[in-house]
Predict the 3D structure of the following.
Amino acid sequence: MSNKWLDHIPALFDELRPHALRSMRQFAEDEIVSMPQGPREGMPFRCAFMPWSALVLDEFDSGRWRRMFGRGPAQSAKTLLFTVIPTMYHLFECSESVIFGAPTHDMAYDIWNERVLPVVRETRYASLLPRSGAGSRGGKSRAIRLRNGAILRFMGAGGDDSQRSSYTARVAVLTELDHMERGASGDDEAGPADQIEARTTAFDAQAKIYGECTTTTEEGRIYIETTRLGTDTRIHFRCPHCLRWIEPVREGLSGWRGAASIVAAGSSAHYLCQLCQHPWSEADRATAAQSPRLVHRGQSVDESGRVIGPIPETHTLGLVWNAMHSPLRSMATLAEDEWRADQALDESLSKKVFQFNWALPWRTKRNEMDVTYPFLAEHVTDEYTHDPLRALSPGAAPDPLPAGIRFRTGQIDIQKRWLYVSADGWDNDLTDWTLFYTVVPIVPEGVGAEAPTREMIRDALDSALTMLVQTYAVDSVWVDTGYKHEGEQENIVRLWCAEQGDGVNALVGRSQGQMSRMTGERVELAPEIPDMIQCRRQPSGDMLWFLDVDRLKDEVYFRLFRPRGAPGYHYFPLDAANEARTDRSRGPASPGWIFQHYMRAKRIITQHPKTGHEVRIWREVGRQDLWDLAAYALAGAMVTLADLQASENQVPSSPVLDVARASAVDAGGIRTRY
Ligand SMILES: [Zn+2]
């Protein structure tokens, strides 16, 4: 006779009896369904789809590693292998708590919510999600208690340390590792990734840390963990032609270089085996992927496919792979990415290709686009024969100016003993024809080393202005007034500008970081004038223009790289590069002199020492005054064009805009007082 009160006892003991845990690989193949909205949505996870993933899960299961880090391309199962599967395995198969770390607490919650939870919902473990309380509804909770007792704890790099230090767990999963290096407070203590990892130290050698990220730079945490501290493990494939094992690398992707179009680049893409030089088709690549090997640093694969060499002495498995290892990316689209980045004017596409396709760190301090002499010489056209120097020769009639010029600007920069002077012609697209450049001595010849007097400076400015007005009929003049005369309280250059009246504009150049420090009362400018140009009314009542020269130089620089003849292109007079294109003369007022100044400016991408963010700096060695004048010229042209268009549309301009406007309206030149 059975006792119905005892019927449930065997089942209860079944529940309590410790069951043999499956391996992570077994668990993944039994339970995981691929991410919703992913390319394999709804399909069960199978290592066979990407055979090397079986080797990675076997490494996780081996018990050899305490710390397991993955650095791979974007969208290549990186999150699935290093975040989703380990998190679910420890929470559900092992019923143990997991710390889930990200740059911020909210990001940790969001990553769980967007990338892990949808996978959980597709499995039978959905029934273990809490039905009420924290985590069951909206709101970014600090922790979720599952119905099997395991707790998922979210931790971020921001926030106070107490939330981290009061909680321990054996398992920590860290995502977006390179973006959590610095705490919100920026203090010098251990980084937040280390602090989160420290929550596992109570478990000593039993602790398990998983982490992943796309590659940033060699200074990034994921690069350090995988390649410098970890095993720097690479995935080798077996070449179907020579039957040897190789790691597919960026250099092997071929066929796209020099292709006539992006379509041609894609259709001729293939991989060249670095051992036998035999091209791989897409089918060859799929075959090669069927025989993967994980090769740690210092190891190799022998002809029989055996991995030989000792395993590195470290607790950290560091796996590195690239888009050639992912069946989700074809060689054609990888080649198209390369071709497009190769054609692009700036570096951002190349950086993406390096980091997101090839898991290669982006090297800082690059200046791939040097402004060289042959490059600048290309900006000289036969149609534009204007001789910049003959205009000043006594008795010589100036060459006709290029057709298409709609208005002109003149620029003056004051240095210790010289004025640097240039004039540029512009059309409505701000296509730039540099017309003229020279120096005007401040100290007259024969006076020797005497310091320039106030009168000498004013005389030199007067003669430069005469030149610009009489020979080039400029619409506006832009004068750098950063110069301060010795012993003078007043800025005599600014004073001189004010005396000239409308059309002669006093400016100061500022670096990007200095733009917040401007004196005077803000003057509203036309909306099309970019904010790298600002105008302030000084206590004297005079206008002073503040120019963000760093950004203006970016503009001038990228205009040099526009396709030849495109709107906004920059032309130089024929004699700037002589017929043989050999003139590299350096002396002031020699025709090739302007190119020397342009070539001394280097645009460098580097990392901010404190924030780690990428920043552009301009580094200039030697005299580059004509290059500075190009930035003033572009600013002057932007203001003058806006003003011309305002007067054409008969928009009543505010009185302050008369500074640049009056001259522009009056085609006869600018009003001056001499
Ligand atoms: Zn081969």
